[in-house]
Every structure is written in C-alpha cells, then in structure tokens.
Amino acid sequence: MRIDIITIFPEYFGPLGVSLIGKAAARGDIEFRVHDLRQWAHDIHRTVDDAPFGGGPGMVMKAQVWAEALEDVAPPVPGRPVVPGPRLIVPTPSGVPFTQARAASYTRCPQLIFACGRYEGIDARFIDEARSRMPVDEVSIGDYVLAGGEAAVLVMVEAIGRLLPGVLGNERSARDDSFGGAAAGGEAASAADTASAGDGDAGSGPLSGSGPLSGSGPLSGSGPLSGSGPLSGSGPPAGAGTLAGGAADADASMAGLLEGPVYTRPRVWRGREVPDVLLSGDHAAIARWRRDAALLRTAANRPDLIWRAAADPGALSGRDWQVLSAMGLSGLIRPDPAR
Ligand code: SAH
Prior knowledge:
Number of helices: 9
Helix content: 25-40%
Number of strands: 9
Strand order of the largest sheet: 2-1-6-5-7
Radius of gyration: 23 Å
Structural class: alpha/beta
Distance between the termini: 44 Å
Bound molecules: S-adenosyl-L-homocysteine
Low-confidence stretches: 183-252
Mean pLDDT: 80
Order of helices and strands: EHEEEHEHEHEHHEEHHH
Shape: elongated
C-alpha cells in the first residue's frame, strides 16, 4: 500500500519509522511519502491560508495550493476514475467517524492520500473538485477538536497499518481485539468500495476499550515469558468464569464489543490471582469467559455498543442475553422476543 501525506508539518511524521508500522515500511509493505504543502505555494512567504469569506475568527486553507498538491501526488487520468485507484482522506471533526470497520476497508486501497488541515480547515471547493475524480472521505477520529490533521492521520495510519497482512505477526489478534469482527476482509469491509460518506460504520465506535472494572486491570508486574512453562494446563479445570453455567457458545469474534481484561505471568501478583478458567486449558470455557468479560466491559464503558448489538439480530446469542440479564442489564435493553 502507498500512503501519501500532505501537511505543512512533515516533521510530525517521524513516528512512522517506529515499531510495527516502521518495520512494515522497512519491509516495503507500506510506502510512505510525506509532502510539504508549502512547496505548492507560490508567493515569497509560501502562504497556504487566507481569511474566511463571511468573516469570523481564524484562517482557511486555500483551494489552489491543495489542488496543485493533489494533482502532483495523484496526476489526473483522462476518462473515468481509476478503480481501484487513489482515495483521498480529509481528517476533520465534522467528518464521518473513523472506526475499525473503516480502517479494515482502507486496507484494500492501493493508495491513500491524507490531506492534513490546519487553522479552520480547507476551502470546501477543493474537496468538491477532488470528489469529481476520486473517492473522498471526510473522516473524524472522535468528538473533540485537534489543532491539525497530523495527529489524526497518525492514528488512522496506525489502525490501518496493523491490519495489513503480515504487519501484526498474528492474524488472530486483530480478530480478538475490541471491535475485532471488522478485521481486514471482514463483513464490514465495504466502505472503501463506495464513495458515499457515512458508510462502513458497521457497529463500532471511537477507539475505546479500557476503563475501571472490578476484577480487571492493565498488564503490569510481569516478567519476560521466556524460560517458563505454558500459561495453560496447570490446576484443575475451573468453572466458566464470571457467570457459571450455560453452554459454551461464545462467538469467536469480538465484533461490536470491547475486549475484556487480559493477564500474563505470574499467576499470582501482589496477592491478585488470574481467573482460574484461564489456566484450565478448556478452550470452550475460556472462550465463553472472554465473551462474558467482553459483554461486561462493553456494558460498563460503552452501553451504546450493547444497544447496537441488541438491535442486530444474530449479534447476541441466547447465552449472551442470559449473561446480560444476570448482570442486571436487562433493563438497559429490550431482549429479542424470538430468543
Ligand atoms: N473549524 C473546524 C475545526 C478545525 S481544527 C471545525 O470546527 O470543524 C483544524 C484541523 O484539525 C482540521 O482541519 C482537521 O484536519 C484537524 N482535526 C481537528 N479535530 C479533528 C478530529 N476530531 N478528527 C480529525 N481531524 C481533526
């Protein structure tokens, strides 16, 4: 995949050389090209902005400089738009939400071009014109206002990049992540196929997934794993975790849910034990426990996702409904009478 980033602060993108994304770039799986917008400004001050029509505070980025930048980065091809071809992504707080599903859909694009706005944003005519020759998405990374699109682009590139084949090293971990059902090639990977804004938001929300929950905690206090035995297989089989009983009918994916707590060695740390079921070696019981924990965490931190799952026939199993009502959450949602 080729990723072009147009910005007035190219130095902002040093972190793209670090960690998983840096390694993917070094291998050639992602080719980054960061462009300084000011090279397309013609006056002596390399001006890229001007006062807004209609008055008001702040400055607006000029259409002309952006148009010339885009024409150089993705030269117009006569005739119909190339499919699949370049796709322009314009970060803006007024855009459609950036979600795991959208990230997954972007993994199928051969070239993504990110236009980092500053000030009050970019003259809307540039975006309208760009739309006449390539798909354009105005995308928000959350309900807050940043000073520029650069940080938003780093967020999006990292979310997209880790879903590219081979980048994460373990394909399963993307599926098991919060919102994991939207991994690359998943059911929601259609956003990039259509140019309309607002699609591709299949059941996921802004990045989330942590928060205080009794019995859970961040990874901490553990040493390196090398030299010690497997995590499973010791101790007697334990019960099915947060809630005993019920069939182990856990859905393997975390589609639409947040991932629950995770643990590593040692088994007892400062008097706090890892839940027995995780040591049982009983894969069905572990899967069920993880599903229960995901439901619990999602209900606590993102009840909107539970409501959405509840409205989606097939998203929650009979056992899931049992778990939710045992948590006292049946008042939050209206169970599907068919179940
Ligand atoms: N006046 C604009 C805000 C401009 S913020 C408005 O109210 O909509 C300046 C730039 O920061 C934007 O052009 C955009 O590139 C970036 N930005 C700010 N918040 C963002 C968000 N939540 N998601 C994505 N980009 C954002």
